[in-house]
Amino acid sequence: MAQPLDYLKETPSQTAGPYVHIGLTPNACGIEGVYAEYLGVAMVNDRTLGQRITITGRVLDGTGTPLKDALVEIWQADAAGLYNSPSELRGTADPNFTGWGRCGCDGVTGEFRFDTVKPGRVPFRDGRKMAPHVSFWIVARGINVGLHTRMYFGDEAAANAEDPVLLRIEHRMRVPTLVAAVDGSTYRFDIHLQGEKETVFFDI
Q1: pLDDT digits over 11-28, tens only?
Q2: HEC profile for the chain?
């Protein structure tokens, strides 16, 4: 017997909608009892090695308007340039650093914020070292597939100039879209989805 066409229709998959926040940051949505704490909010503790920094910014659309429902995740190496990953030698990365953070943008200002440490330089596959950087993943209403980009540090000009990934960007005037502005220990990284200041995104 044929199934009626209006029975158990497929859920739309073209956009994350509100479900990404309910599933990934339930505590921030007022849904208690799923996780003990807001996952990804604490990257460091009082024993974490390295220079403490804050990364902040907004996800902006083509008109410069903040996406207040965006969700941002970051991945980074520790202060020694090692990842908290099974692919690293066991026990070499800082055990007091998660290397991963998740933040839903503020519903009023659109700001995201991560309290972390400045990463060390990670070896590239050909033996060179990459400049200190943080990998970003962005998802929000209307973004069909999560966007990947990197944040480099504005006070690492020499390292940035020889970074093998930054050197692959053909249109050199776009490199500054990946470099965070520095204010003491705070790094400001606004992510522009469209427009003249559109951030460079990576196909990975």
Answers
A1: 555 555 556 666 677 666
A2: CCCCCCCCCCCCCCCCCCHHHHHHCCHHHCCCCCCCCCCCCCCECCCCCCCEEEEEEEEECCCCCECCCCEEEEECCCCCCCCCCCCCCCCCCCCCECCEEEEECCCCCCEEEEEEECCCCCECCCCCECCCEEEEEEECCCCCCCEEEEEEECCCHHHHHCCCCHHHCCCHHHHHHHEEEEECCEEECCEECCCCCCCCCCCC
